[in-house]
Amino acid sequence: MTRIGFICRLPVRILVITLAFAATRLGAQQSSVFIENLTWPEVQHAIASGKTSAIIYVGSTEQNGPHMAIGKHNFIAHYVAGAIAMKLGNALVYPTLPFAVTGDLVRKTAHMRFPGSVSLTRQTYHDVVRDVAVSAIDAGFKNVLIMGDHGDGQDVLGATAKELDTAWASKGVRIFYVPDLYFKEKQQAQAFELSRGIQRDVHAGTDDTSELMWLDTQQRWIRSDKLAASSGAREAVTGVDGDPTKATPALGKIFINDKIDDAVTQIRQLIGPRP
How far is 70 from 62, CA to CA, in rounded Å? Predict the structure, then answer.
């Protein structure tokens, strides 16, 4: 019996359920905001249907103390980028760029003092972000939104966006840097923490740990038995500069939602609600 003949012999109820399930799966695939989940015709169709903004969100692969996984920034970036795209309604997300400027490769400064960290030179960082952005332009996106979850190299992201925007604006393509996602949210988190007596929080402390705690529903990325406050001389040993013992998933939800809202608000100010 042919496949068509078999389908025709199915009871109507089963046939309807089967077709509905197939349609749901297809719709779920095509509705993803992450281009890594899509085929090229689906990306092309999405752009033609109004998904004209591309999000390039940079994470980082760096030490986060004994209590938190090295991929922290990348896990947060992937989630936040997707949430931003869904709130905007007209954006797709490029794969999270997992590397940033985290220290000197030769002198082993900053995060490069600790095994597992990865650092790009500032020139390489610029070149990679530029090439990903130009790839998005080649794909047909009219707005490219560049942002980063890691502190070092934010100036590189801004300069790269400005350089590209200068070259492409006359051709109807805009490239924007979105600093509020990082800087404004950090200010909000620090003010919130100070109001609760948390005095110092620089790296892998309360805010970073809280954000990952909220996302770590399967308990893969936080080592609860390793949580310990650290600063000064101890920071040089542990890589922590802050107090992760005060972190909670509830705080993480607040901080992550601030990131999303800050980014969406600034993007809409830069390009309007429906570019």
Answer: 5
